[in-house]
Amino acid sequence: MFRLTNSPRSAGGTCAAMAKTVRIPMSMSDSSGTQHMIEVPQPVTLQGIKEAAGKKFKDFRPKKGLAYHSFTGEELTEDLVTSLFSGVGTAGVVLCMKTWKGAAKLKASAAAGYRSPLPCEGASQLQRAAMMLQECEVLLVLVGAGMGVDSGLSTFRAKDGSYTKEEYMDLARHQSFREDIEKAWRWHGAMLETFRQTPPHAGYGKLLELCRRADFFVCTSNIDGAFLRAGFPPERLFEAHGSVHMWQCCDPKCNRAHPPWPAQATMELPQCRHCEDYARPNVAFFDDDLGSNARTFNPKYIEPQRARFHRWLASLAGRQVCVLEIGCGSSEHSLRMRWTENSWCCMSGEWKIPRLACPLVRLDPGEAEEVEEGHLGNLVHLLLGARDALEQLSVELGGATRADAVE
């Protein structure tokens, strides 16, 4: 991971011009595993890295040792350097040296039980994922329906992203509450009761421990309210599609005047607390705000969350970022990230997540997709369910939290 220095920023928080230097973490000969920063002039070149390392470390001998990209064990060539440092932002780059004076000392320390903080050639996917998460100062957590599977909840989707329940497509519409209010509430009321009676699985607790290591934010498309039940701080959560635990009026005019309110019992047809119309869940339906359904979704519950999230995103420029993507599936409307043009971008533009050139850890038991060549080891895909993956990561990371972590 590297930081840009002396980089002017625009009001939106992005770099307005190329920085003069790049500060690159590099692991050298000390057995403590400490990372040292080297200052490399822009544009970054292989020779520039060697010269900067030579100034920083007396032990470094550029004719004998070549820099390696630590996530892949790949030899650092001129072409690789160009690809790694061609953009402006945060990149998942940590360098180590192939040979240096004192390497035998580090090898002996490892044999004695010391575990280097840098993933080395031959490291397992789990170890590489743990390293990416351990080294970041900022953690963006993107969560889809797959997170709830281990709690016994349905994703409503097949592996190809299509819906597995036709009634879900029909009843997850605002218009269904106008066409047959009783049928709509039978289905949505049962869903609400299922969510109320289903506790978050143990993986949520492990994820919260992991998040507290860094400056984090959780963005989720899930409407089950599980993150709040699991103890996640509300100011660090963006429930992008709303929550079934909040209700709103079916009348757009009433919604413009009043915010959503906490859901009540569903023994009878829920009515609006502000007018004589019926209530509906405060979740984004397929036909909300489309055509004749203008302003049918009441955004007053999620607007403060969205504002906090976007302010947080604006602070990411020049910081050591890692993305943790959990159970996002493959739908074009999901939070799943894809690697294009030397950076990660969200498959759906509705989330307003900027491009990020950084490490990404994906937790999803589905088949690994083909990633565009050039991601340079910035992706680790653990083919596990959320609970198993988070529990294993917790063990690998030791379960500790940083002293300066966000509460």
From TrEMBL:
Keywords, in A-Z order: Metal-binding, NAD, Transferase, Zinc
PROSITE patterns assigned to the protein according to its UniProt record, in alphabetical order: SIRTUIN
Catalytic residue positions: 241
One Pfam family it belongs to: SIR2
Xref: PANTHER family: NAD-DEPENDENT PROTEIN DEACYLASE, NAD-DEPENDENT PROTEIN DEACYLASE SIRTUIN-5, MITOCHONDRIAL-RELATED
Keyword Electron transport: no
Recorded superkingdom: Eukaryota
Protein name per its UniProtKB record: Deacetylase sirtuin-type domain-containing protein
Domain Deacetylase sirtuin-type: 119-401
Binding residue positions for Zn(2+): 249, 254, 272, 275
Gene3D superfamilies reported for this sequence: SIR2/SIRT2 'Small Domain, TPP-binding domain
